[in-house]
Specification:
Rossmann fold; 15 strands; 6-stranded parallel beta sheet; 7-stranded mixed beta sheet; about 325 residues; alpha/beta; Quinone Oxidoreductase, Chain A, domain 1; 2 domains; globular
Amino acid sequence: MRAIQIARLDGPGAAELVEIDEPTDTDAVLIDVYAAGVAFPDALQTRGLYQHRPELPYVPGAELAGVVRKAPAGSHVVAGDRVAALTMLNGAMAEVVAVPADRVFKLPDVVSFEAGAGILFNDLTVHCALRTRGRLAPGETILVHGAAGGIGTSTLRLATAFGASRAIAVVSTEDKAEVARAAGATDVVLADGFKDAVKELTGGRGVDVVLDPVGGDRFTDSLRSLAAGGRLLVVGFTGGDIPTVKVNRLLLNNVDAVGVGWGAWAATHPGYLTEQWADLEPLLASGLVTAPQPVVYPLERAAEAIASLEERTAKGKVVVALR
């Protein structure tokens, strides 16, 4: 079968299209893959910069969508089912993938394979951030950094459904503002000077929640943008630098800095992924939450797809098509 393989750690350009053997795991769900998602950890892994370092060579990709070819007896899915699935870290960018049954989810008919391949990694992360760790309450206001990226657009798509009354998007350039608005932003501000813009938009009050997958030098101003009792959700560091917190800011303003490690949380809370999907799937099936409209690359251009995350040129979710 065709697959993307990383055999050296010198960046996204190492991604090559190769022929490898199909999986034969009889205890897992065997899936014919139609599309695979691309996420920021995929870019980090190509340089050996992610905390999980797979043995070389490896197949990248943490999420996929496709059709079940074969499933173990007693599984909640059967051959022919349309599904989305999580490999969690590696292996999705291949024509056939074997996935444990508890990481396979029936895909609503209204969601395409390309969109389905871009749902799980981001939407489940954001679900964990807003529902579990961030305690987003009805009527609260949220500020979203990296709002034109995969996590950012996922947050904007889900925030209103989860109760937010206002979603302020932070983007790095004007051309990304339309991406954020299309995803559901009620307001858009530029990263340069966002603190003052947020203060003006909220009448000096600040926001209840900041979701930050970027990190870097905007972190302190994010804390300053919180209203009393606000929560800054630390989701990642696509900006490169890992910021530090002067904890007196937390004390003086009665605000929280909250870590959101979705993968670690899911690994230590059995059944959590199933609970998350049970909450999300009806929203997608009903159309209350729209599926993402990803940027789709052919499998042959997987290196470009991964590079778009590293270079922060990606607008919305990125996927590669295998069929």
